[in-house]
Fold this protein.
Amino acid sequence: MSHSAQVVVIGGGQAGLAAGYHLRRLGLDFVILDAQATPGGAWQHAWHSLHLFSPAAYSSLPGRLMPAQTGQTYPDAQHVVEYLADYEKRYELPIERPVRVLGVHRDGRFLWVETDSGTWHARAVISATGTWWRPFLPAVPGQAAFGGRQLHTVEYHRPADFAGQRVIVVGGGNSGAQIAADLAYDTDLTWVTQRPSRFLADDIDGRVLFDVASARRRALDEGRTDTGGVASLGDIVAVPPVRQARDAGLLKASPMFLRLERDGVVWADGTRAEADAIVWCTGFRPALSHLAPLQLRGRRGHIATEGTRAVDEPRLHLLGYGDWTGPASATLIGVGRPAREAARGIADLLT
Ligand code: FAD
């Protein structure tokens, strides 16, 4: 079956919804295709204790403030899911679910969006498929020999699944620190990080990070000296559970091990640790396989963009994958601005 819309947005997480909000304001005809059966994007799959690293008011999409969650300064993932579900209803965003986009192709004036339930032709496409669907695992010698359980952040749910087990958590970012903190009380935990763990000061949360990133962007835009990004401040936001585990002495990071063996891991100096499970909190990559037919990937695997627009395919915009598609584009509060840019760019193109 074939359908048409001026604009097809691929992905109905926060980035797709923010795009929909601005497309609607500009009066464009669009559809959002989302592979999930229900609203909330990646947030509906997060581990049970995950909380945002910013207060609700600093985690809002354009047009509607996220309401505070009773009793929580930092809302949990379920609260975000409810907010996103309410958002798409409130703005009556035209979302088709579950629809998985398999490939985007060029054909004359149109881009053809091939899905598992028919094809859409469109004058422009916004890709907003996130990173959750493409977990990254580093190649470490002996991985196949390890006899225990190995899982990535995306498969981790709750400490009860590992009660009493020897668990190694790999990763010095926010996911690694939060999952290590989650497991610290009920398991025999080893937390492993590539470089020494760097906690941000306790009074720094997503609010401050956003302000620092915005100030840097302004400075660069105005040709002033680079003020330095958030990376210079540290890697881990000391959200309350992380702070608690750290202060209890339960979050002491060991360096990265050299290889895995059948029963556990071995460090460079020959020290060994036995393990029942390894949780790889080693990040994500943009989920862009549906754009492969357009052949736009550059050397680093990224598609070259100017703002959100793909340099080599001006009818395509990318939203939400990382700073290369707009400053703070991969955060709730940060995606609004690049979403507006993308919608305006498309409106200009279509007129
Ligand atoms: P997603 O939420 O992943 O949504 C993408 C949607 O596209 C999904 O519904 C997916 O099913 C769909 N999709 C994918 N491929 C296809 C396809 N081929 N066809 C159709 N649909 C498709 N940000 C903050 O602002 N504050 C935080 O505290 C915060 N904490 C985070 C904690 C973790 C552990 C992680 C991983 C991220 C966090 N982020 C946070 C970052 C960011 O807000 C989230 O990653 C967010 O989910 C990104 O939204 P998105 O819309 O870009 O992608």
Q: What stands out?
A: Residues 10-16, 33-36, 41-43, 52-54, 59, 100-101, 128-130, 132-133, 175, 206, 287, 290, 320, 330-333 surround flavin-adenine dinucleotide (CB under 6 Å). The chain has six helices and 17 strands. The helical segments are 14-25, 77-90, 174-183, 206-221, 240-247, 336-350. The chain has two domains: 2-133+284-350, 143-199+235-280.
